[in-house]
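Hey, I'm writing a tutorial for new members on how sequence and structure tokens pair up, and I'd like a real worked example in the thread rather than a made-up one. If someone can provide the structure for the chain below, I'll link this post from the tutorial.
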Amino acid sequence: MALMPKRLKNSRKFMRGRIRGKATSGNFVAFGEFGIQAMEPGKITSQQIEAARVAANRLISGQGKMWIRIFPHKSATSRPAETRMGKGKGEVDHWFAAVKPGTILFEMSGVSETLSREAFKRMAYKLPIKTCFAQRRHSL
């Protein structure tokens, strides 16, 4: 089951754009105790998000709770192979989340730190960007 928007305002086709700067929102652990944070900009597809989620769920097997903090809002189009130039933009191929450095990708609570570190390590193998382990900062 791939993640994608239920409905869009105008068009399903987006311009590519660039991912610049650091994350100013969604850059701290808000829901769980531990999180996995992006260290570099990148595009994470809905299939990669799902693969990472499945990898972590297999390890924690029903204990604790997990939050997915990113959603693939942007579409990427592609043209069929061996098609001549022109004739407009291709059809939507897949959906991706544009991620800035500092964005929290996933969060977890209700499991030990060692188990969550191992789960996030397995998730990191499925993702196309460098990530690091993040912990919740408790305020006084």
